[in-house]
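Slide 14.
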Amino acid sequence: MAVHTYFGAHFTAVSRASLERNPYKAMHHWAFSVGVSLAGLLTLGAVLCAAATVREAAGLMAGGFLCFALVFCALLQVVFWRFYNPTQVEDAVLDTYDLVYEQAVRSPSSVWRQELAAIQDTFQCCGKWSPFGLLGDAEAGLCPGELATREDCLQGVRSFLKTHLSIVTALVGLGLAFTVYVMLLSSFLWAAIRSGRSLDHRGTYTPTPRARGRRPQEPSLSRYSQRDPALQHPYEMQALDDRLGGRGLADGPGLCQHSRASASRPVLPPVCPQMCSFCDQQHSSEVLAL
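Slide 15: predicted structure.
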């Protein structure tokens, strides 16, 4: 946008007017200098942040953050200037055109008429509208023939500048949002580098090898019932046993029966070891029969 503003045909035609004091020429150079400086700072900040991320250098990341902070402050200044002086650029361009127009009307020299014709051809306009509706011979001679049907130059300049400044305002808003995002990201990366955490974790995760032919250990419901007293409630045990009923028929007694037995063990009478072994043998014979 800065290059377009400086080398564009519309702004170049106005800034090249050979006046002793051109109101727009100084602003033209100032806008180009600010635009190029901001572009350079953005490029430098991006390069420093990229190098800091690759090398994990906190100093380079701080330098990139400083570049983006300077761009943010400069864009804020542009926003405040645009808010408090919304018509400064328009007034400078119109004042320059008025001076060239007056010189072309008063002086019979062809130099002023050529400069005025260059401005009018660039903006596709001709002359100025008179509030009295009457133009002198010198003023009427500036727009002969078909040129008189063109738009008034004051209106043409205003419409062009309005469109151009709207685009510049949108770009400034996007620049502010981008710089805020990059400053937050660079500060986070700087804190991560300063804390000693590596930004690259490739190759640091190694899975634990499992023995061949060994099944992973399943959680035991009896162990959970011993740890959590809430699971020892008979209604909860019955619900879990109903859900695992199909498995219990295939593998033997339900898993929740053992947990319920362990939960209600203090209220049951002691069982002799011979009876337990007899029950185990009977259960094994039933499984083999199935």
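Speaker note: The first helix runs from residue 2 to 7.
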